[in-house]
Amino acid sequence: MAVNASRTFGPVRAGALVGVVLAGGEGRRMGPGVAKPLRSLAGRPMVAHVVERLRPQVMDLVVVANDRAAAFRALKVAVIADPPDIQRAAKREGRRLGPLAGILAGMEWSLAHHPHAGWILTAPADVPFLPLDLTVRLCGLMHVPEPDVLMVRHGRRREHTLAVWSVKLAADLRRAVLEEGLRRVEDFAKRYRFAELVWPRGGAPFLNVNTPADLGKAKARLAGARSRGRR
């Protein structure tokens, strides 16, 4: 009988990865009110579920959030904003610069605080059911020569912000965002050695909570899992 390690043994850490939770999205489809990462899910902010599941799998964790709400500080992990020059560029454009800005913030934080860690693992704040064996599977695909970017795919969907990134790309990413005006994650990633991890069990762990209806599904799923004694 096959054994599901994520259910049986709990989170597994692999490699010198620094986790970066991207919590800077505008969340327009969620509607007005509380920022999307802070929407309540089972009595806690949605981002807290992401942090809980990712933190044991990485050597350190940082949340990138331009919102300075107390709920982010209550996560008890480092919380940073986009770099100041990125924020100034966003102000000039009248909009946020997208996930690439958060990825850059994570890379630069990792380089400053963990200079010997060569990789970051990014995850969006709206995927509250991340697999507990995510880093093990990703690191198992980092062959020699290693890719610069490794993204998760399930079915036909590629998760652009659920990926491992070499921090050696930080200077190139800064130029791309500030000087070239690049905004699409995939356009940047495909400039470099690029690979995918095809998730073997479908897309259920990667439910993106983008709308009130999605949040309702997440609440129902979590309630059902807890009634069965697991998450």
Attribute tags:
alpha/beta, disordered N terminus, 34% helix, Spore Coat Polysaccharide Biosynthesis Protein SpsA, Chain A, 231 residues, two-stranded antiparallel ribbon, globular
Task: Please give the structural blueprint.
Blueprint: H1 5-8, E1 17-22, E2 40-41, E3 44-45, H2 46-54, E4 60-64, H3 70-73, E5 78-80, H4 84-93, H5 99-113, E6 119-124, H6 134-139, E7 149-154, E8 157-166, H7 170-178, H8 185-189, E9 194-198, H9 212-227
Parallel strand pairs: 1-4, 1-6, 4-5, 7-9
Antiparallel strand pairs: 2-3, 6-8, 7-8
The termini sit apart by 21 Å
CATH architecture name: Alpha-Beta Complex
- Let me know the number of strands: 9
Give the uncertain stretches in residue-range form: 1-9
What sequence of helices (H) and strands (E) makes up the elements? Answer: HEEEHEHEHHEHEEHHEH
Q: What would you call the shape? A: globular
Strand order of the largest sheet: 5-4-1-6-8-7-9
CATH topology: Spore Coat Polysaccharide Biosynthesis Protein SpsA, Chain A
How would a textbook summarize the main sheet? 7 strands, mixed
- The rounded Rg comes to 17 Å
The CATH class is identified as: Alpha Beta
**SS summary, helix count:** 9
How would you name the CATH homologous superfamily? Spore Coat Polysaccharide Biosynthesis Protein SpsA, Chain A
- The proportion of residues in beta strands is 15-25%
What structural category arises from helix and sheet content? Answer: alpha/beta
**Overall average residue pLDDT:** 86
Helix content: 25-40%
Kindly give the count of domains.
Answer: 1
